Amino acid sequence: MSSELPEQTQGDRGSRPALDAVLGTRGRLARIESLSREAAALALREARRADEIRKNFAATVAALEAQLQEKEGELRQRESGLGEQGKSLEARIGDLENQLREKEELLQIRNADLHDLKSKLEEATTSAAAEAERAQEIQGRFEATVAALKAELGEKEVLLKQNDIACKDMEESLARLEESLVNQIRVLESQLEEMVQKNTSETSPETGKTKSPRKSGSKAEES
After folding, report:
1. What domains sit in the chain, N to C, each tagged with a CATH number?
2. Which DSSP category does 2 fall into?
3. Apex CA 190: angle with CA 186 and CA 192, to 5°?
4. pTM of the model as a whole
5. What is the spatial distance between Cα 222 and Cα 196, in angstroms, rounded to a whole number?
6. SS3 of residue 156 by DSSP
7. pLDDT tens digit sequence for 132-147
C-alpha cells in the first residue's frame, strides 16, 4: 500500500506542468484578447475620426470650390480694371490649392495609419486565434492525461483491494495453520508423554528381574 502512494504522487506531479502551461496560456490569451479589444476600439475611433476628416475635407473642398468658382466669376467680371486684385486673388487661390494639397496629404497619411492599424489588428486577431487553438490543444492533452491518471488510479485501487483481500486470506490461512500446528504439537507432546510413561513402566520390572540373580549368585559365592 505504501508503494502505491508515491506512484500516485508522481502522477500528480507529472500533471502539474501541464496544468501550469494551460493556466499560463489562458492568461496570455486573455491579455491578447484585451489588446485586440483595445486595438479594435482604437481602430473604430480612428475610423470615425477619419470619416469626420473626410466629411470635413469634402465640406472644405466644396466650400473651396464654391469660393473658387465665385472668385473666378468675380475675376472674369473684373479682369479689365482689377489687375492687382486679380493677382491677389490668384495668390489666394494658390494658397487655397496649397491648403487643399496639404489636406489631401494629411488624409493620405491618416489612411495609411488606419491601414497599418487594421493590419496590426488582423495580426493580433490571427495570433489570438493561434493561441486559442494552442490552448485548446493543450487543454485536450491535459484532459487526456487526467483521464489516463484517473484510469490508472482506478486500476491501482482495484489492485489494492485485491491485495487487501489476499492479505486477509493469507492471515486467515496462517492463523488456521498456526492453530493446526499448535494442535499437532499438543498431540505429539501427549503421545511423547505416553511413550515416556510406557517406557518407564516397562523398564522398572526388567530392572527388578535382573537384580535378583545377582543377589542369589552373591549368596552362592559366599557359601
Report:
1. 4-169 (1.10.287)
2. T
3. 115
4. 0.29
5. 39
6. helix
7. 888 888 888 888 888 8
